């Protein structure tokens, strides 16, 4: 869906005639109430709330299409919604607040968290009033909280399309291929607009009474990843375009950055394999290697690049990701031929987040694994020593790890990390196999320190007037980990609610 508002009149275009592209470039000026930078879930939600409020609104999107990560979200978080009450889901704001604060050891923005939690149910109602449909409330975990409100069809693109159409129908503008370059800041430090550039090279000065930054973090910016994240090799498993533009603008405006080391962790993925080749519905998309990704995800032996076991392999995604960070961000799944046969004949006991169903028989294991060997992320050997040599692990350490796993499996007790004994497997019968994984992130979640109204704060706690930061450009919701296991869908909800709540505050701000 590509939208672009032409700002040059037909008469001017005719007068320019056959001028060169360089000559076509011309400075342009727009005067609006609200300028939103980024057209993802947060940006279009802010746009929807803004046009509802009667504000003259423009949304800037640097890519040729809108939606960003919002196109891929399956559901979003809420507490105390109509859907939860209908299904007798026993979660309320107080319980969730205490649970989240305990998880983060009170190292997060409690005021912002509480205000956001109190609004999430109303935001579900607001979305439904605008025609967004939900299938129900789910969790991806056996013991998870049912906070994940699933969009009809399991695709957030329905929200993006719906809101975009309504925004334009109410007079709002969505300019694609139009990246923001910088903020306009007056001598008092108040943000008064944005400088942008369109695909023709035109400089666009947008004078705005309020600016909302919603660019989605920095997971696609290798330099920022290296600077801020614990594992410099983190690759993005999310949407493209998240290059930190908004965070850099916020920092230049004087905002304090917080929790910049935190990501929405995606766990271990096949090392070096493009996201599209391993992440997608099994058999329905071009994700050729999604079953190998699911095999890497199975709760069997995981070892560090040195050959040491490092965690209970059944841990929730954010916990196992943290454990992998501690050993350098890369690890191997190691198993023997008996486990290979189990995956082929009995199926993969654990599914992979709706991509691969539990019990899927890995009938094409040998073919895919051989392709992985050729591409350098799978390894096969006739002995543990040979496997260690091929993977670069220490042979003695790997052998010691395998011997201990075999003994614990025989005893049916994991006295090292206390994994449930049903997941213990011997690594005894050759050939032996290893799959190499490295950490990926769906999105970074650190950004500007904000108050409960999503206004960025300076290091001394002062509000930067005229400016708002939402979604993955607003930090303070997470301490050192994304709390997926207890609060599924918070990243998208933080963005969507941020869009609605920032506009609610803009109504008050513009009255002053």
| Average pLDDT metric | 92
Report the C-alpha radius of gyration, rounded: 25 Å
Residue stretches low in confidence (pLDDT < 50, at least 5 long) are 1-24
- Main sheet specs: 7 strands, mixed
| Shape category | elongated
How many helical stretches? 17
Strand content: 15-25%
Helix content: 25-40%
**SS class:** alpha/beta
Number of strands: 19
N-to-C span: 38 Å
What does this structure look like?
This protein is of the alpha/beta class and 512 residues long. It contains 17 helices and 19 strands. The chain has helices spanning 10-16, 21-24, 41-52, 82-86, 93-103, 110-129, 157-169, 222-228, 245-252, 275-278, 290-297, 317-326, 337-345, 365-375, 384-391, 395-411, 490-511; strands at 28-37, 57-60, 75-77, 134-138, 148-151, 173-175, 180-185, 191-197, 203-213, 235-236, 257-258, 263-270, 302-303, 330-336, 378-381, 432-444, 447-449, 467-469, 474-475. The strands form four sheets. Strands 1, 2, 6, 7, 8, 9 and 18 form a seven-stranded mixed beta sheet that branches. Strands 10, 12, 13, 14, 15 and 16 form a six-stranded mixed beta sheet that branches. A hairpin with a 5-residue loop joins strand 8 (191-197) and strand 9 (203-213). The longest helix is centred in the C-terminal third of the chain and has 22 residues, at 490-511. The chain is elongated.
Structure at a glance:
The protein has 512 residues and is α/β, with parallel strands linked by helices. 34% of the residues lie in helices and 19% in strands. Strands 1, 2, 6, 7, 8, 9 and 18 form a 7-stranded mixed β-sheet that branches. Strands 10, 12, 13, 14, 15 and 16 form a 6-stranded mixed β-sheet that branches. Strands 3-5-4 form a 3-stranded antiparallel β-sheet.
